[in-house]
Amino acid sequence: MRVLVVEDSKRLRTYLGKALVRAGLAVDLAADGEEGLHLAEVNDYDVIVLDLMLPKLDGISVLRRLRNEKGRARVLLLTARDTVEDRVYGLQEGADDYLVKPFALRELLARVQVLLRRRYDQISPQITVDSMVINTAGRTVQRAGTLLELQPREYALLEYLAARKGQVVSRREIEQHIYDDRVEPMSNVVDAGICRLRRKIDRLGEPSLITTRRGMGYVLGGGES
Length: 225
Description:
Elements: E1 2-6, H1 10-22, E2 26-30, H2 33-42, E3 47-51, H3 59-68, E4 74-79, H4 84-92, E5 97-100, H5 105-119, E6 126-129, E7 132-135, E8 140-143, E9 146-148, H6 152-163, H7 171-178, H8 189-201, E10 210-213, E11 217-220
Parallel strand pairs: 1-2, 1-3, 3-4, 4-5
Antiparallel strand pairs: 6-7, 7-8, 8-9, 10-11
Helix pairs in contact: 2-3, 6-8
C-alpha cells in the first residue's frame, strides 16, 4: 500500500516516513503543500497523511483540490488545533480522519490501517483466502492454523493482493502501490516478489493461491494456478 506524508517539520516527516516503511508501506514525503499536491496528482496513493499548517499551500487547500479532482485516496489530517470546530471543518472539507498533535505513533499507524481498509471497502480486518487468514489489524498471516513469517514488504504485497481478492492486479499497479523506489523498465522486481511470497504461503502439492494471468497480472484466490 502506498502512503504520502505531507508535513513541513523535517524531523516529524522523517520519523513518520521511517515508521510507515517499517510497517511495510511504500512511502513518499513532501515538505510543503504545493509539492504534496503535485505528488498526489501524479501518483495513486491509498492514504495521504496531511498536515494543515503547510508552507506555500495550506492543508485545507490541498484537500479541496484533491476532492474537486475526485481523488480516491483516504486523507488523515494532522494538526495542532484541537477544537471541535476545527475537527468538524476538516471533516466537512473531505478529510476521512483527524489526528491532533502530539499523537502516539501507534495510534497514527492504527488509523492509517483503518483508512487502508476503507480504501478497498473492507469492513473486517480479517481476510480469508482458502485456508489462509490475513489479519490486517495485527498484520499476521496464518495458513491452516500455522503462523507464517513474512517480511514487511512481503506482507504488504500479500495485503494489497488480498484487498483486491479475485481481481486481476497488474504489475504496474503493484509497482505503484508497494515499491517506493522507482522501478526500472523491464525490472523483474514484481515477479521476484511474487515468487518469494508464493514460497511462503503455498503448501506443497497444492495449487498456488496466486494465479498468474499472462500479459495482465496476478490474482489472489481467483482462479486456477
